[in-house]
Predict the structure.
Amino acid sequence: MVDGSTAGGGAPRALSAIVRLIDGFSEWCGGIFCLLALPLVAALTYEVFARYVFHKPTIWAYDVTYMLYGTIFMLGAAYTLYKGGHIRTDIFYMSWSVRTRGTVDAILYLILFFPGVIFFFWAGLQEALHSWDIREVSDASPWRPPLYPLKAVIPLSLALLFIQGISEFLKALYAARTGRQL
């Protein structure tokens, strides 16, 4: 277009800006959340030394490790979607044209992804709010750490996944309409 309303690749500037903003946010969040691996490794390392070198295992290491691992796993979902790391039937998908892939992706985002994420967000939010209300603690060990912060990660991770899904849907819609990737 002559009026300058498109970016260099032919995509409208507003669309490109929204996609870049969301993708940048997901990448930033992924970089922050990966730092949670440091206390996870520290807790596991400490537990190994305490158990096998000093013969004094901790009562907290199991709880800390499953909570940190679960948090990393859940909060990393949006980053994984951004990087294209979720499961896909590539044997069929990769042989399709960009336009066909975009069409299939856009339809599936609308009929499966967004309704599913909204449903799980709502259910996860209800569970997290209930957990906070009762100040839920774990029964998995004698330490009995609080579970409500971990349960709050569920709706947070789904909100982040929904936001990244918007970017992926816009990219798919653009590919379906133009036959080019954004």
About this structure: DSSP finds seven helices and no strands in the chain.
